[in-house]
Amino acid sequence: MHVPSKHGKKENKETNLLSIFSFFLLVSLFFSVLFYSMSPSLASVDGEKISIVLIDGDEIYVRSGDSHTFSQDYQLYVKGADTDGKRIWLELRRDETSLKDEVVTEGSQFVYSQNSTEILNITVSTIYAGADGVLVKFSPVYQYLDPRLPMPQTSAGSLSNSSDNTSSESQESDNKAKGFDVSLFLLVLGAAFLVTGFFAGKRQRK
Description:
Layout: H1 6-48, E1 53-63, E2 67-69, E3 74-81, E4 87-94, E5 97-105, E6 109-114, E7 117-130, E8 133-144, H2 157-205
Helix pairs in contact: 1-2
C-alpha cells in the first residue's frame, strides 16, 4: 500500500487551498462583473432624461404683428389680439413652417413638444393693450435643445452648465466601463487559477 509522504501531503494541501481560493475569487468576481454590466446601461437610461436648457426662465416682450426668434431658428409670432386685448393669437414657426398656433389669455402656457420632448414652455404673463395694439410679456420662458437639430452656435450659461452635467455623467459611465474591464480581467485570471489548481490536484492524485 502506498503511503503519501509528508511532502506529498503538503503539496496536496497547498493545491486544495489554491483551488478553494480560486473558487471564491471566481464567485466574487462573477457578481462584480454582473453589477458593472448593469450599471452603465442604467446610467445611459438616466442620461436620456436630461434636457439641455437653452433659455432658463427668462422674460421676453413681443408686440402684436411682431415675432421673437429663439435658438435653433424657432420663431414665436403674436398674430393678433381681440378688441379687449384679453386674448392673443400665438403661432410658432420654423423655416416658414407653422408648427403650432393657439389663442391664449393671461396666465396661459404655450407649450410645444416634439416626439414627447418638450422644446418650448412659455407663460403669458401680462397683456398690455394700447391704441397701437398689444404688448405681450412672456415670463417665465423655457427653451430646451431640440436633439434633431444642430447645436446653436451661441450658447447660454445654462447650456454650459447642463453640458457640464452631461459630461460628468459620461465620465462616470466611462469609469464604470473601465471598472467592468478590470473585473473581467480578474474573472479570467481567477478562472485560470481554478483550472490550474484542478489539474494540479488531479496530477498529484495520480
